[in-house]
């Protein structure tokens, strides 16, 4: 049982409870007179429960127990199974991670902006969320979320749902989601439909491990004109792209372990993708022994990643000859890949990354490998996470370096800077500065990472590969090995 909090708790703005050993948070938490008209926590704005290993139940009284609460955080309370406040009129942020036994409902919280929950989720009818911008759900969904009702969240910008067995599709009213920019579905085995004859316009769609997804929506090119990033991973029943092709503004495409789709790759309408820059692909398809086919890949590509081709033995040199804009080539986890093309690789290459390709890696060893002469001129080469030689134009830095680049003077224009490349680092933090938002740098500045690992949170990027920003940035790095511009 939790001890009674002092009378002064009525003035608390912030309350954090950590390591409590009890099984129940009950009436004593609210004070001796829990039925009082004035709630005990009438001033509380921030409440968190952390590492309460035995906590099973949170007793909640009717009404607005926390009228001013803006943030509620529950971390690592594995036995908590019931009890969450239902009425939180001022709540803007709810974070519950991970509490796998908890059955949680979306609270009645009209001011809610961020919903980040690893628990079993259900939706209460009659609730509406006019301010909610971000949803992350990791855990099974109640049958009430069989078809996720996007119309309840008119300002939603980002939604990600992981490991939800019941999720089947999304529903929405036409034209009600102009702000939606990111939709990610991961490991939802019964998910079958990205769109359901509705209009909303994310610029990123990622669908992974959805075994029953068989098709993408017809008319996708018109329904999703703003789509720039599409990822399809582990969708074995997906057979083809829409007949009209993919949205013409697509810049990044990722296709892994979608073997039926990959086997019909000659039917893909590449000609409509004039802006495609990045393509990441992998397949166990038997016919992928010699890849890529001549002139098959779009000539606009700047980054190509070929991964997890179980049967790939040879790279077709003729499939690379027209890729005159290619800057980055990654070859990963292709155990049977024997050598590089006799014709060599595009002379435009800036970096070559090889990992998990034992036969090829040996042939590309510095100075002595049989394929070394084919790649020696490439500025940055990395084999099995080890840089080979010194990056051209790069600067060697100490093992632990904090590097910060920032514009302090709005008048200091840096329009000439086009790219920054960072390799072999553990990234601790990356953030945009105020000066960036004022547009002090090039509109086409490219920020490129190779062999980077995220340490902690990174608000700007979700993966350490390639990203483009509209202007400049500030970043902190730890363990930096090389820095090139």
Per DSSP E runs of 2 or more residues, the count of β-strands stands at 31
Give the domain tally. 4
First-to-last CA distance: 60 Å
Q: Per DSSP, what share of the residues sits in E-state strands of 2 or more residues?
A: 25-35%
Number of helices: 5
Helix content: under 10%
Structural class comes to mainly beta
The rough form would be described as: elongated
Keywords: Plant defense
Description:
Keywords: Plant defense. One of its GO terms (biological process) is defense response. The radius of gyration is 26 Å and the shape is elongated. It is mainly beta and 485 residues long. The strands form six sheets. It has a 17-stranded mixed β-sheet. Strands 26, 27, 28, 29, 30 and 31 form a six-stranded mixed β-sheet that branches. Strands 2-4 form a two-stranded parallel ribbon. The protein has four domains: 132 residues; 118 residues; 101 residues; 90 residues, no CATH class. 5% of the residues lie in helices and 28% in strands.
């Amino acid at each position: 049982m939790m001890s009674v909090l002092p009378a002064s708790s009525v003035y608390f703005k912030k309350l954090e409870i950590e390591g409590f050993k009890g099984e129940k948070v009950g009436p004593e938490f609210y004070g001796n007179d829990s039925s009082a008209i004035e709630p005990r926590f009438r001033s509380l704005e921030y409440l968190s429960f952390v590492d309460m290993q035995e906590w099973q139940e949170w007793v909640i009284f009717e009404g607005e127990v926390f009228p001013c609460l803006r943030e509620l955080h529950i971390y690592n309370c594995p036995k908590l199974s019931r009890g969450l406040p239902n009425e939180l009129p001022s709540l803007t942020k709810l974070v519950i991670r991970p509490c796998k036994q908890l059955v949680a409902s979306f609270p009645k919280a009209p001011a809610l902006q961020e919903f980040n929950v690893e628990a079993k989720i259900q939706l209460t009818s009659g609730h509406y969320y006019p301010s909610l911008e971000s949803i992350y759900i990791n855990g099974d969904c109640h049958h009430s979320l069989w078809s996720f009702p996007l119309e309840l969240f008119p300002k939603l910008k980002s939604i990600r749902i992981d490991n939800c067995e019941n999720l089947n599709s999304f529903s929405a009213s036409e034209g009600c989601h102009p702000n939606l920019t990111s939709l990610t579905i991961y490991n939802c085995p019964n998910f079958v439909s990205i769109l359901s004859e509705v209009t909303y316009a994310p610029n990123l769609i990622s669908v992974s491990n959805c075994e029953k997804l068989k098709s993408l929506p017809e008319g996708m090119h018109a329904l999703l004109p703003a789509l720039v990033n599409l990822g399809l991973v582990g969708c074995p029943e997906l057979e083809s792209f829409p007949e009209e092709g993919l949205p013409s503004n697509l810049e990044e495409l990722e296709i892994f372990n979608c073997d039926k789709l990959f086997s019909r790759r000659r039917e893909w309408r590449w000609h409509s993708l004039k802006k495609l820059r990045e393509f990441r692909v992998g397949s166990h398809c038997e016919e992928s022994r010699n890849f890529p086919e001549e002139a098959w890949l779009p000539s606009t590509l700047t980054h190509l990643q070929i991964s997890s081709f179980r049967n790939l033995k040879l790279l077709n040199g003729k499939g690379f000859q027209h890729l005159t804009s290619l800057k980055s080539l990654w070859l990963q986890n292709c155990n049977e890949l024997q050598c590089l093309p006799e014709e060599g690789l595009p002379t435009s290459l800036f970096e070559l990354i090889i990992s998990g390709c034992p036969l090829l890696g040996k042939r590309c060893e510095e100075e002595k490998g049989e394929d070394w002469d084919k790649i020696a001129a490439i500025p940055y080469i990395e084999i099995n996470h080890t840089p080979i030689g010194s990056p051209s134009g790069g600067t060697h830095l100490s093992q632990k370096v904090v590097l910060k680049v920032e514009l302090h003077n709005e008048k200091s224009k840096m329009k000439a800077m086009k790219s920054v490349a960072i390799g072999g680092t553990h990234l601790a933090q990356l953030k945009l500065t105020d000066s960036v938002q004022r547009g002090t740098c090039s509109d086409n500045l490219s920020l490129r990472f190779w062999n980077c690992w995220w340490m902690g949170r990174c608000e700007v990027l979700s993966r350490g590969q390639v990203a483009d920003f509209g202007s400049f940035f500030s970043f902190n790095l730890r363990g930096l090995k090389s820095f090139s511009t």
